[in-house]
Structures are given as C-alpha cells and as structure tokens.
Write a structure and sequence with these properties.
Distance between the termini: 16 Å
Structural class: mainly alpha
Number of strands: 0
Order of helices and strands: HHHHH
Strand content: under 5%
Largest sheet: none
Number of helices: 5
Number of domains: 1
Length: about 80
C-alpha cells in the first residue's frame, strides 16, 4: 500500500504553485508552508526534483498528461527513504 496518494501529490503541487504567487508576502507564504508540515523533508526534496524535470515541458503537454504526471510524482515520493 502506498504511503502517499495522488491527493497528497496534488496538495503539495498546489502549495508550491500558491507560494509562487505570493510575491514575498511572509504571512501568506507562512500560511502555505504550514500545509506542508505533514510531509518529511526528503519527500519535499523529491517533489522539487520532479518539478524541476517537468519545468522544461510545455504547459499544454503537462495538462494533457496530468494524470500521468501526478502518477509519476506519486510513485517517486513513495520510493523516498525517510
């Protein structure tokens, strides 16, 4: 059984996207970071690695392959040794 589900992956991605939109507002950034406290640092590092990989892809392609991207990231974060 997987420790992290696709909903966890989506939550982490949503938080990182929200952080990018906060324009340095420390209170709003802090509120978003609190949402990540349920996840160990190595898992968050793996998510960042995956996001770096997908950064080079066209946004329309990522939208088309959304479920595949979420599945790939979910598998990767489940393989992290905490």
């Amino acid at each position: 059984m997987l420790k992290y589900k696709s909903k966890d992956t989506e939550k982490m991605i949503d938080v990182f996207a929200a952080l990018a939109e906060k324009d340095g507002n420390p209170i709003e950034i802090g509120n978003e970071i609190v949402k990540l406290l349920d996840y160990p640092v190595p898992v968050l590092h793996e998510l960042l690695k995956c996001m770096e990989i997908f950064k080079k892809y066209d946004i329309n392609r990522l939208k088309e392959d959304y479920l595949g991207v979420i599945g790939y990231i979910t598998l990767r974060i489940n393989l992290v040794k905490e």
